[in-house]
Design brief:
- By secondary structure, the protein is α/β, with parallel strands linked by helices.
- It folds into 3 domains: 8-66, 2-Layer Sandwich (Gyrase A, domain 2), CATH 3.30.1360.70; 99-347, Rossmann fold (3-Layer(aba) Sandwich), CATH 3.40.50.620; 365-534, Orthogonal Bundle (Isoleucyl-tRNA Synthetase, Domain 1), CATH 1.10.730.10.
- The protein contains 19 helices and 14 strands.
- Strand 3 (51-57) and strand 4 (61-66) form a beta hairpin.
């Protein structure tokens, strides 16, 4: 008999370290008194040396208070394991995370940044959680937007020396926007574009050569941005290749009754699953995304021998991926596939971006603007670029995946509040405390000595925050919400500041000094680990 959802939560302060509703769930199933059931469980667990106290509260919650020995052991473990603290047990599972997915012939904009930040952080978390992870990128190098760009290049820029253009990717973005506007204004241009599209898909040599040349501009720009952002990919997929594979599968899909022809197009009717209709091929023969994602889904599992596929993309594609996953099941391909959706990004006070309208904010522009603001606000800092990138990353990652973001440049670089610079400044401050200790203390710091002296409530609260770091890693790996890590880092730093304000770290009491330095060192280790997971630089000085 199912028990329902059993929860282990972090209760409010002064109500224990953990709380569970298991007694109420068991009592409901057994038709017994939940308070008596809770008391029985508590009495049994009191034999363990893990807990200092166990309370039962109405209507049947059990609150657990960890023993002092566990708290002291945590500090020792962190200082001994260093960056390995929080590493979870190795799993015999291989996961592919597909993220970024930019389109060639369009600019890499701030929405792409959020995708990259979520995807790369998720990969880091999954690795720390014990999984083998493959980082994949799926490049949109074919489709209607490519044909429009090629048409406009020949139509309006055929006499220009393209090689002499300085900012080639910006130029391509403007050409695409120009194409969209011209086609909307002139029906004859629509016909010309369609002819170009048919010739390109038919393998016209001049168009294919132009496509190859201009695609390389985009790919080089992408790699340059990825290097600046500090992300790497293990494998690249390309829409142009998956389209060919998808077109070969059309007859198979129709024969199996999964797809059918409708008014010259090829569709999959998923109305019986409340998932609407997905068009795979238009009536003019052009392929849509679904026809490319179907072979790609098979390739991931068959070629790379993965156990799970995770795709990071716009939250507005939730329905689309439900359709793809259902089609794969209908094909007899029942694999573990998940979609992690995220909301759109705009500048504060701005309007929604669109490559078609030509009003996107390029990623490089945002990176440059934030760095300029950092240099103005902190003219003496030697790490302006690291602070700027940390500010952008943290601002985008502190929000839940599904939420929409209005990016506020001024807010992102503040030294107070929920910002990257606030966290980086705290880390630099912690590093400074440890440097000062090394310079001023004649004895070597022993990180496992006299920890029983750490009895101040703010010390114990800080230790408890450190203790749950492995649980935060596990929760994030299971729920894909990187904001969980971001919030944890803020809570950790705020608890550290309360400790630092009330507890003098370096004092005449040598034993207490060593114990508190052990705690400070543990905070530095865990905070640096969190930074590493979300991709933020940990500066020793600001």
């Amino acid at each position: 008999m199912a028990l329902g959802e059993i929860k282990i939560d972090y209760p409010p302060e002064n109500f224990g370290d953990y709380s569970t509703n298991i007694a109420m769930k068991l009592a409901k199933t057994a038709k017994s008194n939940p308070m008596e059931t809770a008391e029985d469980i508590a009495e049994h667990l009191k034999k363990s040396n893990l807990f200092e106290k166990i309370d039962v509260v109405r209507p049947g919650f059990i609150n657990f208070y960890l023993s002092r020995g566990i708290l002291e052991k945590t500090i020792v473990e962190i200082n001994e394991k260093g960056s390995g603290f929080g590493d979870l047990e190795k799993k015999n599972q291989k996961i592919m995370v597909e993220y970024s997915q930019p389109n060639t012939h369009k600019e890499f904009h701030i929405g792409h940044l959020r995708n990259v930040f979520i995807g790369s952080a998720l990969i880091n978390v999954l690795k720390k959680a014990g999984y083998e992870v493959v980082a994949a990128n799926y490049i949109g190098d074919t489709g209607t937007h490519i044909a429009k760009c090629l048409w406009a290049l020949n139509k309006f820029h055929g006499s220009e020396n393209l090689d002499a253009i300085e900012n080639k990717t910006e130029f391509l973005g403007k050409v695409y926007s120009e194409a969209v506007q011209k086609i909307e204004e002139n029906i004859e241009y629509e016909k010309e574009f369609k002819e170009t599209q048919n010739k390109f898909e038919g393998g016209d040599k001049e168009l294919v050569d132009l496509w190859t040349k201009t695609k390389l501009w985009s790919l080089n720009e992408f790699e340059s941005i990825y290097k600046e952002l500090g992300v790497l990919f293990d494998v690249y997929f390309y829409e142009s290749e998956e389209e060919l594979a998808g077109k070969k599968m059309v007859s198979e899909l129709i024969e199996k009754g999964i797809a059918k022809e409708s008014k010259g197009a090829v569709i999959v009717d998923l109305e019986s699953y409340d998932l609407g209709v997905l068009v795979l091929l238009r009536s003019d023969g052009s392929a849509l995304y679904g026809l490319k994602d179907i072979p790609l889904s098979k390739e991931k599992f068959e070629k790379y021998k993965i156990n799970r596929s995770i795709i990071v993309s716009d939250v507005r594609q939730n329905l689309y991926f439900q359709q793809i996953f259902t089609i794969m099941e209908l094909m007899g391909f029942s694999q573990d596939m998940a979609h992690v959706g995220y909301g759109f990004v705009a500048l504060k006070g701005g309007v929604g971006m669109s490559s078609r309208k030509g009003n996107v904010i390029p990623a490089r522009v945002l990176l440059r603007d934030v760095e300029e603001e950092v240099r103005k606000k902190f003219p003496e800092t030697p790490v302006a670029s690291e602070v700027a990138l940390g500010a952008i990353k943290f601002y985008m990652l502190k929000h839940s995946n599904e939420s929409n973001i209005e990016f506020d440049v001024s807010e992102s670089i503040r030294l107070e509040g929920a910002t990257g610079p606030y966290l980086q400044y705290a880390y630099a401050r912690i590093s400074g405390i440890l440097r000062k200790a090394e310079e001023s203390l004649s004895e070597k710091i022993i990180f496992a000595d006299k920890l029983e002296l750490l009895r101040d409530p703010n010390e114990e609260k800080l230790i408890r925050k450190l203790l749950i770091f492995p649980e935060i890693v596990e929760d994030t790996a299971e729920g894909f919400q990187i904001s969980r890590l971001a919030q944890y880092s803020l809570d950790l730093v705020r608890d550290f500041h309360r400790f630092y304000e009330t507890c003098k770290v370096i004092s005449d009491d040598v034993d207490l000094t060593h114990a508190r330095l052990a705690l400070v060192g543990a905070v530095q280790i865990v905070l640096k680990s969190v930074f590493g997971l979300i991709g933020i630089n940990a500066p020793d000085r600001m």
